[in-house]
């Protein structure tokens, strides 16, 4: 008990505890600290100590040092001069009663808690003190994240073990939140319990004095600084300032600079939204937060949801949505993660930082990667998930730490929710986990355990997406066979790859070569051969081969007509050529392995290592010869189809007044996005129930604008439903008719 000028209260407070603890048969001692009082407080506690030797311990400060110092002295005395297992911190002002200690001890035993902190059921203080206390508690919880709803309640029962090596520095009221912060930071179990609070009948409260308040605030700032110093708070800032892996941190920092520079370059040239699919991804993200039927159901059932969920918060800002940054930000962050973990993975694999630098550089400076990371596409997010998963899976195969396996499973989960290639990654990594566990333990039970740890998380995305499609569309396979998922929608009749395995192999080979460049591909193949020769095929050696599975996967997809991919050498045009970019990951890793293994053979290793890595990256990057992924997007935008879309989009931007608009989104994504018609007023095929009503009778549904595509053989659903109907002829005027794009507006201007 700290006591300052408590001559009227201290005796009755101490006697209350002494009699209650005797009645309960609890061995005890009461430590009272007189904090330099200028009244009779010191004499009274000396008299109590003489009357109850061993049960009352009186301690004196020669001068007043403040509440914090009194608490520290009391704790130090209790620990030094008594051997009791539990210590109660309270005040000597008669505002608390000993009977609550009995209840706290019972609660502590029931909960098997390390500490029970009281909170005042009804605070018996003036309203100003109650208001100050609420503000103080909010401030302490915000800064220090301390437990409890009543931070400065002077009734805390704490295990001796938590206080044994505690070093407190807080002054005035800051001592209490500092104490809670330090004992809660070590995994201690802390529970709350209500206590009674009684009005102060004698003496003066000093906690509301301006000098005490200022002292408490200053001390709280100092305590916060100490918590940061001791890594109990703002650990991320400490790790940022002094990272555990400085090399990886520098690589990530360089990647941030490159990502920003590339974004600004492509933005300046107007290429950020060259891909039609980039418009589609932004539209989905925006509709989650702003549409006539906003909500998670707007995620649909064909494209996987994670990229759109990540972009949705930024899509709330219309400017970030319209300029594409809402989606590009996800790609840019994924780019940085990819570069950082490629460095770490290749360095670990090759045994030298030059190998990591080579892998990271080949990926980071590849023109196709630089373009895709600057736009709202989903490839970079998949790459980041895959590279992270492979790195941690390799670490688990090498060291067997369950943390690495858990991190790998989380990365695979994210991949399965990003692109369907992630599902293949899940199957391959699960097979590696099973093989590794079986080789390591030689027992089925341990293998099963590792698979459960990995598969429970990593496979949740696949099962969740099947369940989502079943719940939303009534068909778990809607993602593959639904109205907007069938491969016939994008694989044309007479596709050269379909049914011809040599053509499919040739097509994917050219696509990969165009994305990687001949030099990167050559380095990757050389590194693969060296790795296969040097590393005996074992469980921990399998991980680098994992990404090679995408070669047969894409070849089979082309052969069976599941996906189209065109290259000029085979079809005379470009389409989905970015599918080959995923091969850059294994190529970069094996090239890094090659460089890392060559370094020990060179004289002046540090300089030679940097020179070798730099030469490999520079030469390979220059040999790529431009961004074929950008070429494809630019060629598509130059087509007559997109010229018609651009014309009607420009007209709508000028004339549309924000009224409710009926417009099919499928195959009209460019117009939907670039017209800048507010998504909150757009009725499209994903507008639950509203869509069918609007197609049946747009005027009755309140539709003011109607857009339809009348291209022969490619008419959209709005044209199919409304063309030639009385509703369209009687209630709407044709206001735009160019290139098979038609726009109608209600005759009365507002339906």
TrEMBL record:
Source species, domain of life: Bacteria
Record-annotated membrane-spanning stretches: 208-227, 248-266, 320-343, 420-438, 450-468, 513-533, 542-561, 573-595, 607-630
Keywords in alphabetical order: Cell membrane, Glycosyltransferase, Lipopolysaccharide biosynthesis, Membrane, Transferase, Transmembrane, Transmembrane helix
Glycosyltransferase 2-like domain: residues covered: 1-166
One cellular-component annotation, GO: plasma membrane
UniProt GO BP: lipopolysaccharide biosynthetic process
Family annotation (InterPro entries): Glyco_trans_2-like (IPR001173), Glycosyltransferase_2 (IPR050256), Nucleotide-diphossugar_trans (IPR029044)
Sample GO molecular function, one term: undecaprenyl-phosphate 4-deoxy-4-formamido-L-arabinose transferase activity
Matches recorded under Gene3D superfamilies: Spore Coat Polysaccharide Biosynthesis Protein SpsA, Chain A
Family: Belongs to the glycosyltransferase 2 family.
Name of this chain's protein: Glycosyltransferase involved in cell wall biosynthesis
UniProt source species: Glycomyces artemisiae
């Amino acid at each position: 008990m700290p006591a300052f000028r408590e001559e009227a209260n201290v005796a009755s407070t101490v006697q209350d505890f002494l009699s209650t603890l005797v009645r309960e048969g609890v061995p005890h001692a009461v430590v009272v600290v007189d904090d330099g009082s200028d009244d009779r407080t010191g004499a009274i506690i000396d008299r109590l100590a003489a009357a109850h030797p061993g049960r009352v311990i009186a301690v004196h400060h020669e001068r007043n040092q403040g509440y914090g110092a009194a608490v520290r002295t009391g704790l130090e005395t209790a620990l030094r001069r008594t051997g009791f297992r539990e210590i109660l911190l309270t005040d000597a002002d008669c505002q608390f009663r000993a009977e609550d200690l009995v209840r706290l001890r019972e609660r502590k035993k029931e909960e098997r808690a390390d500490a029970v902190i009281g909170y005042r059921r009804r605070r018996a203080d003036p309203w100003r003190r109650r208001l100050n206390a609420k503000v103080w508690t909010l401030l302490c919880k915000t800064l220090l994240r301390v437990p409890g709803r009543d931070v400065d309640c002077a009734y805390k029962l704490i295990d001796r073990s938590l206080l044994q090596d505690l070093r407190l520095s807080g002054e005035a009221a800051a001592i209490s939140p500092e104490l809670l912060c330090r004992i809660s930071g070590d995994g201690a179990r802390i529970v709350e319990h209500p206590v009674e609070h009684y009005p102060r009948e004698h003496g003066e409260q000093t906690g509301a004095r301006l000098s005490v308040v200022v002292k408490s605030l200053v001390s709280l700032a100092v305590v916060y600084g100490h918590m940061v110093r001791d890594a109990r708070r703002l650990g991320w800032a400490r790790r940022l300032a002094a990272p555990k892996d400085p090399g990886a941190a520098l690589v990530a920092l360089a990647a941030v600079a490159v990502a920003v520079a590339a974004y600004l370059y492509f933005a300046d040239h107007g290429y950020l939204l060259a891909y039609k699919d980039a418009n589609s991804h932004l539209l989905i993200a925006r509709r989650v937060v702003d549409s006539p039927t906003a909500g998670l159901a707007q995620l649909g059932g064909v494209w996987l949801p994670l990229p759109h969920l990540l972009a949705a918060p930024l899509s709330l800002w219309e400017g970030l949505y319209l300029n594409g940054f809402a989606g590009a930000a996800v790609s840019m962050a994924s780019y940085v993660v990819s570069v950082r973990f490629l460095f770490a993975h290749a360095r670990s694999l090759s045994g030298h930082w030059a190998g990591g630098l080579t892998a990271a550089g080949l990926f980071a400076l590849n023109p196709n990667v630089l373009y895709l990371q600057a736009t709202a596409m989903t490839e970079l997010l998949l790459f980041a998930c895959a590279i992270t998963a492979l790195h941690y899976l390799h670490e688990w195969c090498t060291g067997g730490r369950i943390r690495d396996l858990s991190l790998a499973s989380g990365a695979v989960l994210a991949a399965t929710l990003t692109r369907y290639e992630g599902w293949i990654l899940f199957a391959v990594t699960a097979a590696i986990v099973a093989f590794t566990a079986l080789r390591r333990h030689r027992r089925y039970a341990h293998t099963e355990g590792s698979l459960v740890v990995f598969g429970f998380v990593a496979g949740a995305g696949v099962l969740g997406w099947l369940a989502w499609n079943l719940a939303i569309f009534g068909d778990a396979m809607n993602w593959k066979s639904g109205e907007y998922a069938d491969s016939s929608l994008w694989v044309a009749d007479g596709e050269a790859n379909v049914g011809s395995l040599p053509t499919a192999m040739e097509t994917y080979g050219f696509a990969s070569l165009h994305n990687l460049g001949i030099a990167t591909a050559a380095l990757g193949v050389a590194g693969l051969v060296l790795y296969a020769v040097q590393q005996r095929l074992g469980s921990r050696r399998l991980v680098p081969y994992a990404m090679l599975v995408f070669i047969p996967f894409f070849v089979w997809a082309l052969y069976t007509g599941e996906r189209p991919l065109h290259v000029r050498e085979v079809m005379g045009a470009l389409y989905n050529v970015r599918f080959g970019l995923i091969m850059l990951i294994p190529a970069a890793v094996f090239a890094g392995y090659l460089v890392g293994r060559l370094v020990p053979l060179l004289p002046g290793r540090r300089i030679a290592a940097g020179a070798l890595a730099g030469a490999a990256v520079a030469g390979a990057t220059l040999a790529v010869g431009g961004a074929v992924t950008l070429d494809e997007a630019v060629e598509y935008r130059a087509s007559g189809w997109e010229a018609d879309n651009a014309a009607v989009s420009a007209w709508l931007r000028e004339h549309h007044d924000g009224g409710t608009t009926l417009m099919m989104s499928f195959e009209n994504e460019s117009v939907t996005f670039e017209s800048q018609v507010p998504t909150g007023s757009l009725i499209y095929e994903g507008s639950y129930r509203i869509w069918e009503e609007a197609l049946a009778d747009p005027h009755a549904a309140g539709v003011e604008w109607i857009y339809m595509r009348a291209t022969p053989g490619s008419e959209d659903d709005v044209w199919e439903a409304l063309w030639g109907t009385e509703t369209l002829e009687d209630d709407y005027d044709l206001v735009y008719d160019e290139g098979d794009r038609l726009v109608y507006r209600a005759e009365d201007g507002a339906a």
